[in-house]
Amino acid sequence: MRESTEDDEVFKIARVRTLTVLPRLDANRKRSVLQFLHESDLINGDKRTINLWEANLTGANLAGANLWLANLTQADLTQADLRQVDLSGANLTGAKVIQEQCEQAKSLKDVTMPDGSKHT
C-alpha cells in the first residue's frame, strides 16, 4: 500500500474502510486505529497513503497519538482528546476543533489551523 497513489484501487478501499469504521468505534478504539495507521506509515510522511480528510473522530481519545503530517482536512474532532498529541505538520483546514483542544496538543509546529493559518 505504501507504493499506492490516490488513484489506485487499494488506496480507495483502505480510505473507505477506515472512514466507515471510525464512526462505529468508541474513543479508545479510534485512537488504536490511528496509532496503527501512524506506525504503519499510512497517514504520515511524504508517502501518506490513507487520507483522513473528513474523518469522523468525534470524542476520540487521541491522548499520546502521533498524527504528524496527517491530513485532517474537514475532520470532525469534536470533543476529541488531543492532550499530548503530536500534530506537527498536520493539516486541520476546516476541521471541527476548538482552540482549547489544539492548545492541549504536544506539538502544533507547522500545523495548518482550521482557519487556514499556519501555526509556527
How would you explain this protein's 3D organization?
- There is one protein chain.
- With 120 residues, this protein is mainly alpha-helical.
- It has one domain (9-103): Pectate Lyase C-like (3 Solenoid), CATH 2.160.20.80.
- Helices cover 26% and strands 0% of the residues.
- The longest helix has 13 residues, at 9-21.
- The mean pLDDT is 88.
Biggest beta sheet summary: none
The overall number of domains is 1
The chain-level structural class is mainly alpha
CATH superfamily: E3 ubiquitin-protein ligase SopA
- Listing every helix as H and every strand as E from the N terminus to the C terminus, the arrangement reads HHH
Global outline: globular
How far apart the termini lie comes to: 32 Å
Helical residues, percent = 25-40%
Radius of gyration: 13 Å
- CATH structural architecture: 3 Solenoid
Mean of residue pLDDT? 88
Unreliable spans are none
How many beta-strand segments? 0
What is the topology?
Layout (H helix, E strand, L loop, with lengths): L8 H13 L5 H13 L59 H5 L17
Features:
120 residues; mainly alpha; Pectate Lyase C-like; globular
Briefly say what this structure is.
26% of the residues lie in helices and 0% in strands. The protein has 120 residues and is mainly α.
